[in-house]
Amino acid sequence: MADNITSLVVDADTKKKPAAKKNTGKNRRKSRELVMKAVYRSMLNQSGIEPILRDMIDDPDYNKADEAYFKSLLEAVTTHVNELDEKMANFIDRQVTELSPVEHAILRISCCEMMFDMSIPYRVVINEGVELAKIYGGVDGHKYINGVLDKLATDVRVAEVKSFRS
Fold first, then answer.
1. Three-class SS of residue 158?
2. What is the spatial distance between Cα 15 and Cα 67, in angstroms, rounded to a whole number?
3. Mean pLDDT, residues 26-37
4. Per-residue model confidence as pLDDT tens digits over 126-160
5. Number of Cβ atoms within 10 Å of the Cβ of 93
6. Which CATH superfamily is domain 22-165 in?
7. Over the stretch 37-68, which tens digit does the pLDDT of each residue have?
8. Helices of type H across the chain
């Protein structure tokens, strides 16, 4: 019996391991991070997105990001900026203009994904927003982001949230 176990272990050790799949989640996370930086800079500089887009391409993390998703998300946020701010205003406890620029940028990105990209589960959108807030936001900013996005999800993803919670 011991010989059988030994031969199984030896056989298992000599087999080649399959190549690891590319982690697209990490690439999308980097994309979101770059979009957050671009949106933040655009808000602070009150400038167009084109020069900021050129600068973001020079960011060292750009090569780690999903380029197509980065450009798509940045374009979507830029295109729908007024609609995103109007929607998030329903779920925050202050004026949109009173949000910290970092939290405002994160909420714009997350609201955009929540409202316009149904291929991303709402819980993933919330988690990604919270993770960005933990890295770049204020001390308890991630809690605020979580609360706002949870309320948004119950409004724009009714069936999905209901299905998950039941």
1. helix
2. 35
3. 91
4. 999 999 999 999 999 999 999 999 999 999 999 99
5. 8
6. NusB-like (1.10.940.10)
7. 999 998 988 777 788 888 888 888 888 999 99
8. 2-14, 24-45, 49-57, 67-79, 81-89, 101-116, 122-136, 141-156, 158-165
Q: What's the sign of the alpha-carbon dihedral 46, 48, 52, 53?
A: positive
Q: CA 79 to CA 119: how far, in whole Å?
A: 19
Domain residue ranges of the chain, discontinuous segments joined by +: 22-165
- The residue among 44, 69, 63 whose CA lies nearest residue 119 is 69
Instruction: Look up residue 17 and give its two tokens.
Output: 């391991």
- Residue written as token pair 């080649």: 16
- Rounded to a whole number of angstroms, the distance between the first and last alpha carbons of the chain is 49
